[in-house]
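Hey, can you fold this one?
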Amino acid sequence: MAISNRGIVVAVCADTAHRFSKANLRSVRLIEGHGVEGDAHAGAFIKHRYLARQNADVPNNREVHLVQSELFDQPEAIIRLKRADDAI
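Sure. Predicted structure:
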């Protein structure tokens, strides 16, 4: 069976605040060297609050999370995600 490296984007999310869950948006603007425009984690330097307190001059390693949509078809996986969201 051949493995495909192609996919379909079903959602993009961003948030201006540091929260675990981010709102679904119609689109996002990716800016080279900056990240997702308007997102709390965008910028040249680290935005993770814990790491920024230790050393705010660390370059930002912008994160993109790719989650397979099939995960959301599994109720037990959604429960685990909700519990993780509540813990933060």
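The mean pLDDT is 78. Let me know if you want another pass with a different chain boundary.
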